[in-house]
Structures are given as structure tokens and as C-alpha cells.
Amino acid sequence: MTKAEKPSSETPAIPAADFLKAPLPAPQALGDVDLTGPARFFNRELSWLGFNWRVLEESENPRVPLLERLRFLSISATNLDEFYTVRVAGLREMVNEGVTHPAVDGLTPSEQLALINANARELMARQQETLAGLAREMSAEGIDICTREELTEADRKVLHDVFLEKVFPVLSPLAIDPAHPFPFIPNTGFALALELESGADKRKLQALLPIPQQIDRFVALPATEGRARFLPLEAMLIEHLPVLFPGYKLKGSCAFRVLRDSDLEVEDEAEDLVREFEHALKRRRRGQVVRLTLSSDAPRRLVEMIQRELPVKDTEIVEIEGLIGLADLSELVTSERPDLLWPSFSPRIPERVHDHEGDIFAAIRQKDMLLHHPYETFDMVVRFLQQAARDPDVVAIKQTLYRTSNNSPIVEALCEAAEDGKSVTALVELKARFDEAANIRQSRRLERAGAHVVYGFLNLKTHAKISTVVRREGGKLVTYTHYGTGNYHPITARIYTDLSLFTCDAALGRDATKVFNYLSGYVEPGELENLSISPLTLKPRLLEMIDAEMEHAAAGRPAQIWAKMNALVEPEVIDKLYAASQAGVEISLVIRGICGLRPGVKGLSENIRVKSIVGRFLEHSRIVCFGAGHGLPHKKARVFISSADWMGRNLNRRVETLVEIENPTVKAQITSQVMAANMADTAQSWVMAPDGSFTRTPLPDGQFSFNCHRFFMENPSLSGRGTAGASDVPKLAHGED
User: Fold this and answer.
1) ∠ CA 632-635-636 to the nearest 5 degrees?
2) DSSP 378-431
3) How far apart are alpha carbons 42 and 569 in whole angstroms?
4) Which residue, 572, 656, 599, 593, is CA-closest to 87?
5) What pTM was estimated for this model as a whole?
6) 463, 620, 630, 709: which one is catalytic?
7) What is the pLDDT of residues 679-735, one digit of tens each?
8) Are 48 and 593 in contact (CB under 8 A)?
9) Which of 264, 364, 386, 573 is deepest in the core (most CB within 10 A)?
10) Is 630 a catalytic residue?
């Protein structure tokens, strides 16, 4: 803990949010730019790269533990890989097909690719500089990433045994000549290209050594004087080339890594959706190469051979001076050095569940229960379904599954319920990118157990997070419903901040049932009582609520909007926010990643503030609060939680939910705790400028820095009851009506 971060026991209440109370920054003009044209939007892809720069900068943040900083570096590399295999691949396909139509911000696909290429190359160079700095700090802490030159004879003996026992059996060294064609290298595939020469007749040989992804990237060396020592796998392989190519000497080598187009194309008229996705997954493996990274000192003949055989253009090649494949650095983040990691943290079990001796249904019957993950355990969601599976009074369970874990306890509970004779319906989204294969496995498992498995719409992803349990109680059926902002994934729930609403409100239960009927029967639901869903009513509801705030501003009443999400790019929503700003509505946005809106622009968005929080946990919850003529926070505010970011895909091409919170104490928990803490955070916050850049909140030495993640971890009284009582909710220090 740094002196800039006091223990929260000294600061039990949320401080005034400087982000809100400070005067709005002087509006900036954008030169002669036409604010009615594309320049009012910031480019989506460049905004995403800006987010990944912020992730990388956390790896340089001295207030973050050393191995956690290494983890941030690994995450920034993984993020960039996925960005290339999906977003850059899509833009490249548009260029290849001759598409010149500009995006909403006015940039054509080719213009975007040029800007992305320049920015990403700078980012990758900075990643290598960051790794060099982290390696020095790790060495000072007794952790070394070694080179071949640093190996001792004892090291080589141990390595030889490890190589023969754990590596050699799975390698396939390949000569490259007319009789031995260049092999297929899969997405994220890593390989060594080699120039060899026989010792006897000086015969030249070009060879390839693909490195199986099942082998760890770093090999542990014998510890010396208490130091942990690791050698990159490629260095071990070079060390053992005489075993792989007897009689040959190494004349030159090149490490390289391939990224391929990973987007899926599925036939609209597929008769068997599961089988079509299985075929599409096989095609993805063989997608076009979109980026090739290779050693900067590679012999030119090897580079030409790799470029010709893959094939790739010059613009798709990045030469790396350093370690290739930084995503693998996560292997070095181990629990063996807890002093270099975040302090351990155990999520809390809501006191109300304890009070009812673990009976979740009884806790929900008492009143609506809101859980704030990961501070409160996601295990409550799992136990909700496990209890339902074993309860003889439960007659039916319905569940959406977008992403979940392997060996998912949620799927296990659904299977148990189906095998027990309960009616179980599971909506499994096969189109969840990079989880398609896992979801196919889960769907087959559910079908074998006797559950009804449906796949929703072919042309819409089902991203909504809903679970319902129907239970016999006193001669009637009662529906218990869970609405979430995050996935039903017990692993990611440990590091994603999300909200879970449990309720037995009859209207919310009816709405959930109508949505499930829509997903399974394609018939649009009748009028929903509380819920709004995309692509039908969610965006219109948001626009209507923004219009209402504009009316309050026109009437001289307080007019405020607070919203929190992962991304904001939908043009119609952005234009409505601009109109609201010009009407006098004060708008404060917490947007973790992509933001296409330009805040603080004179004549356009003077009343809009945007910040991003990047820290220990991944901010993932989607929340929007409207002052409703009373300002924020206020008991009469209109408060919603959602599964949807404000993007075109979420509002127009997915099934999503927007749930209004009507329980007063749940509403207070969201506005005066969750949102207030996000607005007050300074330790992990970046503020957006009109040009799309973000600046970290300045932290003068010794000044108290409020950290919303630390605050919720260290204050169990805030949300330990599942729903705070009115007297338990700390007030934001200003703006209270």
C-alpha cells in the first residue's frame, strides 16, 4: 500500500467526487471542424487502442505490485492479438473487397488500417521497453528471465533431462524443400525457422520447428541462492538442435508467431446450426494471416521464405527486438511470490443468506437482493441454481448461457435438475466469439441430461443474462429471477465487477418468461411491464429517458445522467447525448474501453465528462441513472442495470436487457455506493479529452487517493446484506437533494 492510498478503515465513507464537483473544463474547439459532420465522433478502433495503452501503462505503475504489472503487460499483448484477429481482420477484408465507404467518423477502411498499423507498432515497441524495465525489477527481487549465455553446466544437464522427457516427444522438426512443404501454422502459432549446414558436406538445409501450444513457454531452471530462474522455450530448443538435427550446425535462426483472421462466417440457411458452427471453427483455424511477428535479427533468406509461404505483405510483418509472444508472460505470475501480488481477497457471502441459513429463496423472498461482484461472491448465483436443482418444489428452470467456464457448475446444476425430471430450458449462444467450441460441448451435455436446448436467433446474438426458477409455494407458482450485467462464468466473476439482481417480483418474472418465449419461439413479446430489450425497445427507452432529462433542464429542474459501461459508439445515442448536453443536462460517463463521443467540445458537449477506470478488477457492469428532475443521487432517480453496452451491435443486433430498479434500497446501493464510488475514484481513473486522449488523474505525492476497488474490498458493511438498508448507504458528499 502506498502512502497515497490510506486504508479505507480511516475513510469509511465515499469522499466527494472531484470528477463531478469540479467546474467543467473550459470547452475546447476543434478548429474549423464541422461539428455536424463525422468529426463529432472519435474512431472506434483508435479508441480501443487507446484503452489498451492504458492497460499497458498499468504495467508501468509503481503503485501496482510487480508481478501484477507483468500480468498487465501480458493482458495488453493478449488484447492486441484479439484486436488483430477480429477487428483488423475485418477491416483488411473490407479493403480487399474494395470497400471505400467511410465509418461514422469519416475514415475509410484503408485509412483506419494505416492509423492502426502506426499506433500498434508504437504500442508493441513500448511493450518491449516495458518488459525490459520489469525484467530488471524482477531480477532485483530474485526472479530472472535468463538467456542461453547465462546457462551453467548444471543448468544444461537439468535442461537436457527436461527436454528429453517433456519436450522432445511432441516436437516435429521439418525440412523445407520440394518434398517437404511448408506446414500449416495455426492462429497464435509459434515456430522457429532455421538455417542449417551439415558438418560433413556443407549441405545447406532450411528447416522449421513448430512449437506445440501445449508446452509451457518458460522452463524453470535450478534455483541458485534462492533465485527463481526461467529460460524461454525457444532458447532451450536452440540449445538442443543437435538432438533434433544430428550432424548439422546452426547458421541462422528466426522465431516467428502468426495471427490469423478469427471471425466466423455461418450460412444464414444452415439446417443444423451446431454442425455449421463446427465447420466454421475448422475454417477459422485456417483463416488468412493478419499479422506476422518475427525476430528483428532474422536472416533475410528465412524472412523471405516465411513471407512467401504464409503468405503475408510487408505491412503485415512486425519485427520484434525482444521476446515474441508477450501474452505468455502470464506463466510467470505465480502464487509463489505473494509479496509481489495483490493482497489476497475473499469475496463475501451476503449476511442475509447467512441469516436464512443458506436458503437463497428465503433471502430473496424477504426483499430484492443486489450483489456486487467480485466483492460479494458469484457463488450465490451458482448456489441459486444448485438449490433449485435439488428443491422438490421447483418445477422449471430457464437459463441463458453466453459464456461460462469449462466444467461449469452452472451447467452441472442444470443437468442435475433435468435428470431429476424438472423442466429445464437452456438458451446457449453458439456465436459467443472464441467460446463457440465450448458452448457446443455444453449444449450437447445439457441435451444428454434431458434439458431443452435452444440457440436463439441465427442473425442475433443472445447476450442477455437471465435465469428464472419457478417454484410451487402455497398452492401457486412463484418465479424467482436473476438479472445480471455479466456472464454466468464463475472464473471471470472473480475479477470482473458486475451486478446481480435477485428478485421474486411477479412483473419481473413475467417479463423474463416472455423473453425466453421470444428466444425459443421467435414471436415478439407483448408489452413488457418493467423490462426493455434490444433490438426491440431498449434503445428507444434510452432515448426517451434522455429526452426526459432535456425536458427537466428546459423547465429549470436539475437534469443529470450518470452512466457506466464498457463501450459507447452508437451514433444515434451519442447524438442524443450531445443534444442533451446542449440543452443543459450534466452528463457523467464512466467508460472503461471504447468511447466514440468527444466530451468537452465547445458548441457540442460542454456538459459531458468521460472517465475510464483501469485497475485490479475489470470494470464490467452496465448502469445508467437519470436524475428525473431531482439530480443525482436521489431516491426518486430512475436507475437501470443492463447487459448492453451502447454499441450498434448491442442495441440493434443482439438480444439484451435493460432492467429498471424500483426497490428503494437497491436503488440507493447503486447510486450512492457503486456509482458514487466510481465517480469519486482517483487512484485508477483516466479522464478523456476532446481529441480522444486520456490523462491519468494527477496524484501529488502524499495526497489521499480514493480507490473504488480497495474501498469495496475493505468495507464489508457496504453490501454484505445483499441490499443495504437506507441508514447503511454512505452519501455522496454533494449533489444530494
Assistant:
1) 85
2) THHHHHHHHHHHH-TTEEEEEEEESS--TT-HHHHHHHHHHHTT-EEEEEE-TT
3) 9
4) 593
5) 0.90
6) 463
7) 999 999 999 999 999 999 877 666 778 999 999 998 865 544 444 333 333 333 322
8) yes
9) 364
10) no
